[in-house]
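[step 3/7] fold_predict: job queued, chain A
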Amino acid sequence: MAAKQPKQTVMEWSEEHDIILLREMISREIFSFKKGSPDRGKTWESIQEFLNQMENPKFHIKEKRGVRDKWNILQGKFLKRMREEEAASGIECEELSEKDTLIEELSERERSFQVKEKNTANDKEAAESVRRKAMERMKDSKRKTSQDSDLDPGLAAGGKKSRKTAPEVVDFLKEKAKCEQTQRQQEMELRRKELEENAKQQRRVLEVMQRQSEAQQQINQALLVLIQKAFGTV
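[step 4/7] structure written:
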């Protein structure tokens, strides 16, 4: 009789597990890499390996897909709850917990990266369009020059070049300069947006750290009061 295979341990996620996962996602800047890229895949894998090495609390994550799926579940539930609270009239949203604050921060980082990625793609497409138009004008200019050469006996006999193509050359040089200027402006604008986004992310990280510090201070004060009551000093 074949030996029974050992039953695989099913991961049960607690609030503590969730918070540790979210902290790791922020510290490793998971959303600074393109979705589906090898770099993001390696980051998910490194988070999975790190969590599985922890002793308290214990993690049992079979593959990197497990942490990615857990993030999607956490984010989905959080966003749904936020929409419901915003839609409900007369209900004041409670102050966000550490877990909700981390999810909100990660969601904002993910959204910002998607917007930046879309802007980059649009800028590249615009620059490519300008470049294609410049190349088409250059081809038209060369074609016209070739036709003029066929009609100009002096050029056919090796004489001096006709000046008929001078306006086309000037137009091409102007278009080329315009294309290069547009590309430089787009690069500068993209760089400015990146710097602004980095500054925003740094401010959000500082806000998260401040909230965590304040929460810890409140916990310490509550513990101090309990200790004082226990020893009758209050």
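[step 5/7] annotate
Residues 98 and 212 are 7 Å apart (CA to CA).
Residues 155-164 have pLDDT under 50 and may be disordered.
exit 0
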